[in-house]
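Hi again,

Forgot to attach this to my earlier email, sorry! This is the prediction with manganese (II) ion bound. I've pasted everything inline since the attachment limit keeps bouncing my files.
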Amino acid sequence: MTPALATFHLKHLDALENAYQRVLDEHGYSGVLLYSGHARQHFGDDQTASFATYGHFLHWVPLPGIEHGWLLIRPGQPPLLHWYAPQDFWHLTPELPDEPWVERFRIESVTEPGPPRLPSGRFAVLGDVEADVATALGAECNPEALTIALDELRVRKSDYEVACLREANAQAWAGHRAAREAFDAGAAELDIQLAYLAASRQRESAVPYQNIVGVNHHAGVLHYQHYDIQPVRKRYSLLVDAGHRHHGYCADITRTWAGCDASDTFGALIDGVTRLQRRLIASLGPGQSFVALHERMHWELGHLLASQELVSCSADAAVAQGITYAFCPHGLGHLLGIQVHDVAGRRRADGTPLPPPAGYPALRLTRELVSGMVLTVEPGCYVIPMLLAPLREGAVGRDIDWDAVEALAPHGGIRIEDNVLITTEGHDDLTPAV
Ligand code: GLY
Ligand code: MN
Ligand code: MN
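Structure tokens for the complex follow:
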């Protein structure tokens, strides 16, 4: 941690101590015990799956990947970190960094996993724990109201969190540049992925989500999960949706590039989606409804499809008939932080649910924007046969140029995704400029 980030982190902890005190008082708890979690073994095996430390634990302790850690928060007391440092010659035992935050915690080093004993009072345990662990401690296990209230503390990012998100973006951006260069040189999906990881300086198990590296029609699979090992003969497109973590905070960036065999229409659509995204970002600021922005994305997408003669109806009709939904079934964006799809996107600040509108079930952010939020803005346009095929049967099918759609299909799709901070004046795009 740089000295500047360390100073921000101490202020972040000050604010967190005050906020936890308020929430614990309001909900009538003496304290809360946060569990980092630990990697799970595959069934019948001694190997573990990759692991992400619990978000509320990381909100305090800037060490992603820590396992078997317990953090006890009690108003008026320093945070108590139960630090698991086993005597283990098979693995490297974790060591606490030489950073100022460590002085602010009371640290108890232990060699056996398991929770600390709790003092008397009303306590909650939050994290990936079994109910009987909480019961044995005399505590409540993941009470919903308290969890929702603590989730809300992650909605407005502190200066420390914004600095982490900005750095995660800078690291991810280096990967995106390398991925594009690898594609232009004729690399296969796996080699593009490896170029991304090398340039962004991270191992695959540390990425915030499985990188999406889709060449040609794979770019139209929203969460495409494979890496082909053979290069393609014709290069139409590359979609890379990939991030980075900095002290646990995630970047989530997507870029789409036209290959040497791309059609003019595909190039025009990339340009159109990019401009659309820039217009939406330019309009961001506190007080806005993200649902309204998502609806505007659909209307603008209708215009783009019409301008490229993929549809012959008006933008309004393309939205109303579900054509734009078939071309872009995911939401415009989501909150971003310690989790890629960060908590509390579908709740009001008082915790009441805000479900997505009926026509857009995948929208992950339904609340009004406030300063301090960091969110993604990620419009897209894809050829997804299973969504388009049903439109072909009905009257709406006459509004679509199916030959043009078929010519576009080998390109898969387009997504352009930036990470944006809402400020009191408007916004600040954390993703480096193209
Ligand atoms: N990378 C997943 C998403 O953009 O939501
Ligand atoms: Mn995203
Ligand atoms: Mn993404």
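The chain is about 35% helix and 15% strand. The longest strand covers residues 237-246.

That should be everything now.

G.
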